[in-house]
UniProtKB/TrEMBL annotation:
Keyword Hydrolase applies: yes
Keywords: Hydrolase
NCBIfam families membership: hydr1_PEP
Gene3D superfamilies hit by this protein: alpha/beta hydrolase
Molecular function per GO: hydrolase activity
Name this polypeptide is given: Exosortase A-associated hydrolase 1
Hydrolase found in the keyword field: yes
Amino acid sequence: MRQHFTFACAGETLAATLDGADGSTGLLIVSGGNEIRSGAHAGMAALAASVAAAGHPVLRYDRRGIGDSTGENAGFESSSEDIAAAARAFRERCPQLTRLLAFGNCDAASALALFGPAADVNALILANMWTIESDTVDEADEDAAASTITASAIRSRYLAKLKDPRELWRLASGGVNIGKLVRGLKQATAKTEVTGLVARLGEALATLDRPATLLVAEHDRTAMWFLEHWASDAFAKAHANPHLSLHRLNSGSHSFASAADKAWLKERILAELRT
């Protein structure tokens, strides 16, 4: 049964939706970006309903300044109190809960990595974790868009071009913009930058003392950046953390939009809830 209610957070009122079930292991869904709790194309609402049908209660909520909640939207790095308040409200609404998992996609995954342990959450499911300090890409501008492509993706693209006789002919006949080629080669050989956010996430995952399942739609741009950083020194200690597991999906959908992607995500979440 679906219920709508509100709870308090730092002097503000947050709106929430509970899909009820009798199970003692519940799922807290944290919305990413500026999405409302129903998710893109109501994807999180559908996920909540299907997980609840499998016997696990699910709580979704709008953080401060988003959707039906009051207050100022200060971004995911200011959401620690929202996550903690939601976890408390969930346990109060469902007193049978003995274990609470939290799921987030994109910057919600990053927020959970940083703040989930302090919110009395027993395990984390982190999808397509956001590791970029800012995103100023104008997708209509090819050069600007290319600047956000990971170095490994650029290397793969140039390797494919070098294997294509038509591309080699274009290069030999002057049909290639040399300036763009030089910029691309510089990006392809660039070392992945370890920014402040990446360093914090690396430290958070390295010291995590509870299970965390990392999910990546490996052709999604945000996930590609995560994988680039995951292979860097910033996450070297996290690789040794026995509480972490990484699962890849052959997809480019950031929101797990296709039926097959949705089914994969649901099964991964249910597997963790059953553990």
